[in-house]
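TEACHING EXERCISE
Course module: macromolecular assemblies
Task: Read the component lines below, then compare them to the predicted structure of the full complex.
Student: A.B.
Group: 4
Components provided:
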Amino acid sequence: MDLAAEENKRRADRWIKGIKVGEGTFANVYKGTEKVTGRQVAIKKIKIGEMKDGLDMTALREVKFLQELRHPNIIELCDVFSVKQNINLVLEFLDTDLEAIIRDKDLIIQQADVKSWMLMTLRGLEYLHRNGVLHRDLKPNNLLISADGLTKIADFGLAREFGDPGQRMTCQVITRWYRPPELLWGSRHYSSSVDMWSVGTICVELVWRAPFLPGETDLDQLKRTFEMMGTPTDDEWPGHKELPDYHPTAMHPKQPWWTIIAPLGAEGVECVREMLKYDPKARLTAEQALQHRFFSVLPRPTAPRLLPKPKAELRPRALAPDEFTGKPRVENGNSMKRKAESPAVEPSDGKRVARRLFV
Amino acid sequence: MADEQAEASSSSAWSKTLVAGPSPYHESSQYRDWRYSPSQLTSLREALNKKSVEVVTRNTELEKEAQKKLGHDFQDPPPLTSYLSVQDEQLLLRFYLSQASTIIRQGFGLPEVVESTAMSYLKRFYLKNSVMEWHPRIIMPTCIYLAAKTTNYPVLMEHFTPKFAKLDAQEIIDTEFVVSQSLSFQFWVRTPEKALRGWALDLQTKPKADVKAVKKSISSALTFLSASRLTDAEFIFTPSQISLAALRLADRGLVDEYLEWKYEENGETTFGLTKGRLVEILVELEAMIETGKTELDRKTVKDIDKRLKQCSNPAKIPGTALYIQRKEEQAKEVAAQKAEKTLKLKEGMSDRDMVFGDVIRPTQSKKDTKTWSPRVTMGSDRPLDGAKMEPSGMGLKDEAMGNLIGGAGLRDIGKTHEDI
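Instructor-supplied answer key:
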């Protein structure tokens, strides 16, 4: 046997694959255990299929970044092994996510809870940015929650390195509701500030218990953003009119939209508003946000294990539509990458079983 | 660039080492799993070579029997003297490394990060496999193909294969997996080009820095980095050490003055190691990089390749009896697994339903089908503007469309396009 095959077998033998708990077009998820310790894990088996372009880029990205990143607030990749032509990712077992918490109307969320989730998310994000990685798909259902209440950033299928001067990047990233205006206007040079906008919108959603800016199209997304927060002016966002896809929009006046997050207190409101600055350069960085007074004034953030959690632990629920279509769309004949978005395809047969519990 | 990185280097005695605090590099898989001392590299390769010779010998015998069974004539295996030595393997690998570099630059016009990553993949692959088992003729293009994807410069298969003589897309797809496995699915390579940028910036923080000289040294340093890619430097030293050595080769005065100032300002522990030790490392590295500059003797390489034809593992050469046998066995195994799976699935369905409740079907009541995440159309309403080539840029590519447009890249700063 080849040396590499031997190593692979050694790794594969560490784990026992259990029942299937999630299924999508892009990957199946199984429960698993580590033989020696009995530790519970999730095994994500990436479907390779008959791709003419070989290993799927989304899978490669996910593996590439998770192999390197180790942080309490980032999902842990315990191992990678292959069986036949399938890649198996062994991930730590996480039973719920922030979206489930937001949607579970039986749960009461308090200021200290929001503070705690934000703090953990920002810690993970600061680590990510410090390592030169953009996540580019932050949204509540990519923020998973462990049994002891820790928030973990997951799904690195759209992540990439940043910081190469002159490097052009796609603006078709981040699920629309969490996408900052510079991307909607086609910016090809951007930075960690795009992830910060997402964090800001997620924070509002935690208080409001509904998506802050649920645009129906890319245009509608801009419209909703400006209706809510006012159309940007040259003063607050110099140069935005130079963006590739800039188009003049109706002038909406500034409104005190932040009254909806008033429960966060003055510091909380200030912190979120600074994350949602139109000018990417003026937006708080993850590091600055962590040092914001919001996190040091009372009430103290709730201890992770005391945070509210949906009661039914292993409750299956439908995959978000973009999870169904995580596979790269190749009908253009020249795209090998998954978009952060999905065409409006509803699976029509019962075969596509949705049991999303984690990634 | 803590000194512990270089402690893998066995060539010099180690005084008390000073270790810098953890940096992102110290958490990388490259730091964890891909550092070796020169002697470790040697013994690793010797063991691999020895094992491969055994495998090839055994399989050649098996092939002979298989052929005889089929009623074919079969030549006797070559006598042991003609198997490749470690040096032969290294020479051949070196040849394919320089080929990879040429193809990536001139064939595809891809930037350094792809070149650096692909060449690292190739070198890492042959720390786990011998050229007698997997011929670099196929592994080299596969590494390029894979690296292009992992560094965000994907090339479509139909554009890829035509750049190589007699290369079948299926061969790439078949070996891509073997390569990934040999890389332990660790795809992020920390390449020295980024570190070079860092040095170039830091050099300018020195009071009265000679910005012109810094600029000039970069393009020259990049050619030394190209040479370093043909050596084992990346297994022994850190990316920052390699790039500093390349800079010092480009302009020794510049680097020495900078180090002098830096150590005066920041004391003994600058960069986590003493100046004396750092210079020692640099000198060692510079010598190593110089070896990457020597020309290969084409005739020797050709000769090795000819001999390789006779001592490749028959089980991995298409058309041999063993190859066909192996493929058939694989197909059988896959079919059996599929059958087993279908059975399991049937059994599992009921079992699963009991544990997890009813299967959720995406189309239930109207309220339930309301999409939670936004439904998005592909942004095709406007022409994508990435399809332009900038002769002196970093290489353009429309990431969203996966179009790949070559650019000259960092190495050409200060040069005209014709220089490439």
